[in-house]
Amino acid sequence: MNPLLKHRTLTAAILDQLRKAILDGTYPAGAQLRQDALAATFKVSRIPIREALFQLDAEGLVRFVPQKGAVVAALSAEEIDDVFELRRLLEPRLLARSIPALDSDDFTRLDALHAEMVTATAANDLGRWGQINADFHMALYARAGLPRSLTIVHGLLQTSDRYTRVHLSDVAGMGIVGMQRAVSEHATLAALSRAGASAAACAFLDQHIRTVHDDLLRELERSQREAMT
């Protein structure tokens, strides 16, 4: 294998493992990610570790703090606003561009992803559910012909996944309600897209993203109040 390709593949594998560990809470907010310790864990040099951490910083999952290095980013209202307002700007635009070009193979994939989401919801599998959710959105926008915007949205969806997992893992069964609502809304998005109802689909998508945004802000406010009591 080409040494450069091998290096990139190694960095990508480490990035994937670190991202998953942050998303599932193995590394909670505020945890310090020491490059030497991670290099020892992965049995690699610090170079691919450093590159993976830089990418996580770009995704908003990690922050570099003076005297501490890489630290898992805290959940904040400002970050939620930034991520979800960007999503509302970019995703309806992508969907409007994509709908006219979606074909039968695309809708077959959307149907398969929706079925997987139903299964993940029934199993309360948050990790799998989050990945399917991102895959479903990206499949909707696959024919937009805007690769730069798609790359940005893919990153935003990964960041959203962390917040969504916090919300869906709450107590009193509200998480499963949120998952079931999303499953229903995704079915509506697919149906509107299949019908070629671009304006209605984009408006529904905007509301879909806004609802999650509002829910997350309420959940963050609730958790902050509880932390103060």
Topology:
Blueprint: H1 3-23, E1 32-33, H2 35-42, H3 46-58, E2 62-65, E3 69-72, H4 77-98, H5 104-122, H6 126-140, H7 147-168, H8 174-194, H9 198-228
Antiparallel strand pairs: 1-3, 2-3
Helix pairs in contact: 1-3, 2-3, 4-7, 4-9, 5-6, 5-8, 6-7, 7-9, 8-9
Salient structural properties:
WH_DNA-bd_sf; transcription regulation; Arc Repressor Mutant, subunit A; three-stranded antiparallel β-sheet; Four Helix Bundle (Hemerythrin (Met), subunit A); WH-like_DNA-bd_sf; 2 domains; DNA binding; 229 residues
Bin the strand percentage.
under 5%
Low-confidence runs of at least 5 consecutive residues = none
User: Helix-strand pattern, N to C?
Assistant: HEHHEEHHHHHH
Indicate the structural class.
mainly alpha
How many strands in all?
Answer: 3
What does it look like?
- By secondary structure, the chain is mainly alpha-helical.
- The chain folds into two domains: 3-72, Winged helix-like DNA-binding domain superfamily/Winged helix DNA-binding domain (Arc Repressor Mutant, subunit A, Orthogonal Bundle); 77-228, Four Helix Bundle (Hemerythrin (Met), subunit A), CATH 1.20.120.530.
- The chain is 75% helix and 4% strand.
- The chain is built from nine helices and three strands.
- The protein has helices at residues 3-23, 35-42, 46-58, 77-98, 104-122, 126-140, 147-168, 174-194, 198-228, and strands spanning 32-33, 62-65, 69-72.
- It has a three-stranded antiparallel β-sheet.
- It is globular and about 55 Å long.
- It comes from Ancylobacter aquaticus.
